[in-house]
Specification:
329 residues, alpha/beta, Rossmann fold, eight-stranded mixed sheet, 13 helices, 8 strands
Length: 329
Amino acid sequence: MDRWDRLEQRLMTEACQWVESEEVARELEKGERHPFDALLREDRIPHIWCPGCGLGVALTCFLSALLQTDFDLDKVVVVSGIGCTGRVAGYVRLDSFHTTHGRAIPFATGLKLANPELKVVVFSGDGDLIAIGGNHFIHAARRNLDMTVICVNNLNYGMTGGQVAPTTPVAARTTTSPYGNYEPPFNLPYLATASGAVYVARWTTLQVRQLERSLLEALNKRGFTFVEIISPCPTLYGRANRLGSGLDMMRYFREKSVIRHGADPREADIYLGGPIVVGNFVNLDRPSYLEFRDWLWRESDYGRKREEVIRKLYQEERKRMEGRGLRNS
């Protein structure tokens, strides 16, 4: 069974939970039903996103990747915060939470710890995740909580008027930096890597196939996985910086994108008018938060041999550092 057959079969199964199978088959054959209708809340459509926005592309890539996994969709949870991207939680026909501003990751953490069988996905924007939610982001990555974080980065606060964001490039204009931004922005792949994420990737909404594959890898990998999606915001960021329409911004992505798999995330800064480094940057293995907790409790005999285990961990860490040439002479 190839990829498309599997997708069609999975979509038919989901759609038939809500509509008679004969009607679903007839509508699909006649083109009257969109293939992803089974996973979208039709009562919430039409969406609020502007023409030219990349969020529709990001959502489609996510749903396509999700359907290629073996997850029980009844155990998949999508958590979003506030902002344009935050509307995703309300549009998907999955268990979902549209939470308070900056608190998507704490909600997701509670869900995962309360029910480890859930596949938890955080789908939100750069302002929600990295500005007001930045503290939660770095600590979830540090703990290596088993969740996938998808960050749609449109380089400004799109929903509230196009204000400067923690990802806005230096010299870029926004409504609150009309003469150009003078605050250095976060490099999100580097931030995620330095904080402890085990999988880090970045694509624009132009590279849909690569983005879909990275989302699939992130969903299937255990631990804190992070995918940044650079998305056009022609209504506000694009207009303020004379980048044109949504289509013009996609041409801009094609011109500026540089694929560098395995690149050092420190080299993935985004500059106004400069190259956009995309690719899969980090893919490593280490125990997730719950796996490490359970192992530590077993090895330490529920705390009775704590010092012995700590000594063992310290010795193993020293050996790793020596192997990498990081030990001070």
